[in-house]
């Protein structure tokens, strides 16, 4: 079965978060089910530099006012179609904003172009290849489904995956004239959204199936509290909604073979974690002792609950813990963590930015990872942590609730506990979770039992890919 994936990020070529990990790993997992995936992605400079030999398979003299072409290339196991549109994507900064973090003011045009090309490929194919199904990821690609619905590819099955409903791609009504859609696309049943245009909304109302990245999140977004204004639409299409938990790429995240960590280890032999811990302490300038070492690998934002952690740092240190932070985000929160590192030298360290190799070392050397998210569609860092014996301390939200078993008395007694779970958005609950984690860490046998239980859990893509494959197959058969 031939599938087209449309995404604004794909690991290891361009990444700002878990979206890239999913779009990079899912094609390989689907190959085991007889499905061949080609991914259409924007030609950012970091991606273009990795292409090597590429062949032009489609050209545009004027794509939303700019010349563009589609390049076919292989990078490792990834089969790519790259939208080479320098006017839109050859820029300094990130995928969505300039070097200061400000969104590009033409993002509506940049990602409409990506989506339009996805729909064109769905309708006409490229050089003898045409997809049987199109899978669009998040708001940046969701308009693919709308262009397909209102164009010649309307009969091709289309799936939209919500990775985070908080990011919807909302723009003013004035851009509608530039989208190249027919007049009937403007309306409640089309791209119109509260008087403007909603890219994710347009994709959700146009899709043949909607997926989210965990079962619990699929239920949460049906409520006004978590639906971000789209709960009515989602409830109206609940029969097309599927919560499919993300997986992890176990070839990249493997403590027995990871080339980015100081020493390999396994669930049977945890001794190698000590060398990783010492390397981690050295990197962050932390005291080299046996105090419980908490880590954070996250965007430093309100959604991730990082304001709650910033307020709890003195509590954590006062109880005897240490903290290493890797992330970037809101400038006040970045400043708060840097100030804490200055205030608690040797006990708190902060690295502002993103560093993929360092994130591996942190999972391999940290004792526990703090993830106090107010909402979390799936979360991948807790899955990496489980695989590396780094005990997750998580809010009971979305995919965190689906993947971490709380160390309550019954779970500990049964040897099933894999982490500490607490109510979200509650500072006192976070304080209590930190204290409980430190107490659990004090019982070496109990702590190692939790580590091993987490490392034995299977969060590979095999189960999730089976569900995606079944869904895709049913849609293609239904369209035949």
UniProtKB/TrEMBL annotation:
Instruction: Please give the family membership noted in the entry.
Output: Belongs to the glycosyltransferase 1 family. Bacterial/plant glycogen synthase subfamily.
NCBIfam families hit by this protein: glgA, PRK00654.1-2
Q: Name one GO biological process term.
A: glycogen biosynthetic process
Organism, by scientific name, is Sphingobium herbicidovorans (strain ATCC 700291 / DSM 11019 / CCUG 56400 / KCTC 2939 / LMG 18315 / NBRC 16415 / MH)
**Function of the protein:** Synthesizes alpha-1,4-glucan chains using ADP-glucose.
Q: Which GO terms describe its molecular function?
A: alpha-1,4-glucan glucosyltransferase (ADP-glucose donor) activity; alpha-1,4-glucan glucosyltransferase (UDP-glucose donor) activity
PANTHER family in the record: ALPHA AMYLASE DOMAIN-CONTAINING PROTEIN, GRANULE-BOUND STARCH SYNTHASE 1, CHLOROPLASTIC/AMYLOPLASTIC
First-tier enzyme category under EC? transferase
What catalytic activity does the UniProt entry give for this protein? [(1->4)-alpha-D-glucosyl](n) + ADP-alpha-D-glucose = [(1->4)-alpha-D-glucosyl](n+1) + ADP + H(+)
Listed A to Z, the keywords are: Glycogen biosynthesis, Glycosyltransferase, Transferase
Q: What is this protein called?
A: Glycogen synthase
Q: Which InterPro entries match?
A: Glyco_trans_1, GS/SS, Starch_synth_cat_dom
Please give the superkingdom of this protein's source: Bacteria
* Metabolic or biological pathway: Glycan biosynthesis; glycogen biosynthesis
Q: Where does ADP-alpha-D-glucose bind?
A: 15
Query: Which positions fall inside the Starch synthase catalytic domain?
Result: 3-235
Q: Domain Glycosyl transferase family, which positions?
A: 288-448
- EC assignment: the record states 2.4.1.21
One GO CC term on file: cytosol
């Amino acid at each position: 079965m031939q599938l087209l994936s449309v995404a604004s990020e794909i690991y290891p070529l361009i990444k700002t978060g878990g979206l890239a990990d999913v779009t990079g790993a899912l094609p390989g997992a689907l190959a085991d089910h007889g499905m061949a995936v080609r991914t259409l992605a924007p030609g950012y400079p970091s991606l273009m530099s990795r292409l090597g030999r590429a062949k032009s398979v489609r050209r545009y003299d004027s794509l939303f006012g700019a010349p563009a072409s589609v390049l076919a290339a292989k990078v490792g196991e990834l089969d790519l179609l790259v939208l080479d549109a320098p006017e839109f994507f050859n820029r300094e900064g990130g995928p969505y904003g300039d070097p200061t973090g400000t969104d590009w003011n033409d993002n509506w045009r940049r990602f409409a172009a990506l989506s339009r090309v996805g729909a064109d490929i769905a309708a006409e194919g490229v050089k003898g290849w045409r997809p049987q199904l199109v899978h669009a990821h998040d708001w940046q690609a969701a308009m693919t489904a709308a262009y397909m619905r209102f164009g010649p590819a309307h009969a091709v099955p289309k799936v939209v995956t919500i990775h985070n409903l908080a990011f919807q791609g909302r723009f003013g009504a004035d851009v509608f004239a530039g989208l190249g859609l027919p007049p009937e696309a403007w309306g409640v049943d089309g791209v119109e959204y509260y008087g403007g245009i909603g890219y994710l909304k347009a994709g959700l109302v146009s899709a043949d199936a909607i997926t989210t990245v965990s079962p619990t999140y699929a239920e949460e977004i049906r409520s006004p509290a978590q639906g971000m204004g789209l709960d009515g639409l989602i409830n109206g299409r609940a029969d097309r909604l599927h919560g499919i938990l993300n997986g992890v790429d176990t070839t990249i995240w493997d403590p027995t073979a990871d080339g980015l960590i100081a020493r390999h280890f396994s669930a049977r032999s945890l001794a190698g974690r000590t060398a990783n811990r010492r390397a981690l302490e050295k990197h962050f300038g932390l005291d080299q002792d046996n105090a419980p070492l908490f880590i954070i690998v996250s965007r430093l934002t309100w959604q991730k609950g990082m304001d709650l952690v910033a307020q709890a740092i003195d509590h954590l240190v006062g109880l005897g813990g240490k903290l290493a932070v890797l992330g970037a985000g809101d400038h006040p929160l970045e400043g708060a963590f840097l100030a804490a590192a200055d205030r608690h030298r040797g006990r708190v360290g902060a690295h502002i930015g993103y560093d993929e190799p360092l994130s591996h070392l942190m999972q391999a050397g940290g004792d526990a990872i703090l993830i106090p998210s107010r909402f979390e569609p799936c979360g991948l860092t807790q899955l990496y942590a489980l695989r590396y014996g780094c005990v997750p301390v998580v809010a009971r939200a979305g995919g965190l609730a689906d993947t971490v078993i709380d160390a309550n008395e019954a779970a500990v007694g049964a040897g099933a506990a894999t982490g500490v779970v607490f109510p979200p958005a509650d500072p006192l609950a976070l304080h209590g979770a930190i204290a409980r984690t430190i107490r659990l860490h004090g019982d070496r046998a109990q702590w190692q039992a939790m580590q091993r239980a987490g490392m034995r859990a299977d969060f590979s893509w095999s189960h999730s890919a089976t569900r995606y494959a079944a869904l895709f197959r049913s849609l293609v058969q239904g369209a035949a």
